[in-house]
Design a protein that fits this description.
By secondary structure, the chain is mainly beta. The strands form two sheets. Strands 2, 4, 5, 6, 9, 10 and 11 form a seven-stranded mixed β-sheet that branches. A hairpin with a 5-residue loop joins strand 5 and strand 6.
Length: 118
């Protein structure tokens, strides 16, 4: 059974930092790219960051220079380090897994709330 379990969300003041974790199980972690999405109320879900097999990373313009995605293959875990947080970063953050060669994400976590106060 595939599971993606996010943790690390919470309430933080603007300018602060949080690190999200996503623990994966039930599939071959190394065969999948990993991504972090977020969805704010009344907004479309957006891809924040992704990481491929050789560590290639991609970021949305809105978080570039502030967020860092990384993964630990030995722990089947992907992280999102979020620095210099802004109120507009407030959203539910989801991790997702995409099999290499696929154009869509196959597995999703349940989400973790991040709230940034001004």
């Amino acid at each position: 059974q595939v599971q993606l379990v996010e943790s690390g969300g919470g309430l933080v003041q603007a300018g602060g930092s949080l690190r999200l974790s996503c623990a994966a199980s039930g599939y071959t972690f190394g065969s999948y790219a990993m991504g972090w999405y977020r969805q704010a109320p009344e907004k479309e879900r957006e891809l924040v960051a992704s990481i491929g097999g050789i560590g290639r990373t991609v970021y949305s313009d809105s978080v570039k220079g502030r967020f860092t995605i990384s993964k630990d293959n030995a722990k089947n875990t992907v992280y999102l380090q979020m620095n210099s947080l802004k109120p507009e970063d407030t959203a539910v953050y989801y991790c997702a897994a995409r099999k290499y060669g696929s154009t869509s994400y196959d597995y999703w976590g349940q989400g973790t709330q991040v709230t940034v106060s001004s």
